[in-house]
Amino acid sequence: MAADDSRTETSSQLSSAGDHGSVDSGFVSPSTSTVSLPRISLTQPHLQHLNKQLESLHPLEILRFCKIFFPNLYQSTAFGLTGLVTVDMLSKLAAETSTPQTVDLIFLDTLYHFQETHDLVERVKARYNARVHVFKPADVDTVGQFEELYGEKLYEMSSELYDWIAKVEPLQRAYSELNVAAVLTGRRRTQGGQRGDINVIELDDERGVVKINPLANWSFAQVKQYVTENNVPYNALLDRGYKSVGDWHSTVPVGEGEDERAGRWKGQDKTECGIHNKQSRYAKLLEKSAREQAAPEVQAA
């Protein structure tokens, strides 16, 4: 699905050097188009300095800095609690000036979200006058169209392929069409798994974007307290035992004493959907297939 609008495009790529450690990147494939982005150059010493300074700041101050420092800044969100806190804080920053610089939202509509999630999106748009760019799996608008192309229950038959089609490729398309230079995420260290050692600012060198985790050092209790004290709209499913809400087919309530994201992909050897992984097994298979196809052409030449 095409985005609502696009912003001024430049041909420079974000550049980075060295090993970035725990970088949250997505899938790549031989068919992925090159992303054209504004230029943002951060050396490793500069990145380390920024993270050291931002680590002790309140998320509101981190967001204030990011709005000034990063061009073409967006927020990617599935409208979880952390993302909703970020939306609310951004609205407070916008209220400080007569000419607010808004941060648009990117929402990946996998076609398998709970109805409660779609209801929440509309409430957030009304409450904050938020501009939401919706991206769906390529060339489809409904579950019926999706399953006609890929079959029923692709999420069970090939979860990595499903993640690529429903989430990763749409996000790559969003970055490209919107010319995203930097993006706010809702990841926090206390969510566990691969998120336990994330920095406030990370470089996604596979995509050419800066990823910012403004609430990286907040706990679930802090997030929930902010939501309550500021009357932030949230997903009705949270009152039914859910703490992290994704697709209906891979999300269940969290049990007493379980981790915050224990209800996601329960029973599977999986904690992420792909957009926060360096690469997926499916992406690697695509690359291997492309190399094998290219080999005879090289020999023939």
Automatic annotation (TrEMBL):
It catalyses: [thioredoxin]-disulfide + sulfite + adenosine 3',5'-bisphosphate + 2 H(+) = [thioredoxin]-dithiol + 3'-phosphoadenylyl sulfate. Residues 73-253 form the Phosphoadenosine phosphosulphate reductase domain. GO terms for cellular component: cytoplasm. Keywords: Amino-acid biosynthesis, Cysteine biosynthesis, Methionine biosynthesis, NADP, Oxidoreductase. Gene3D superfamilies: HUPs. GO terms for biological process: cysteine biosynthetic process; methionine biosynthetic process; sulfate assimilation, phosphoadenylyl sulfate reduction by phosphoadenylyl-sulfate reductase (thioredoxin). CDD domains: PAPS_reductase (cd23945). Its EC number is 1.8.4.8. GO terms for molecular function: phosphoadenylyl-sulfate reductase (thioredoxin) activity. Residues 1-30 are annotated as: Disordered. Pathway: Sulfur metabolism; hydrogen sulfide biosynthesis; sulfite from sulfate: step 3/3. Pfam families: PAPS_reduct (PF01507). PANTHER family: PHOSPHOADENOSINE PHOSPHOSULFATE REDUCTASE. Belongs to the PAPS reductase family. CysH subfamily. This is phosphoadenylyl-sulfate reductase (thioredoxin). It comes from Staphylotrichum tortipilum. The lineage of its organism: Eukaryota, Fungi, Dikarya, Ascomycota, Pezizomycotina.
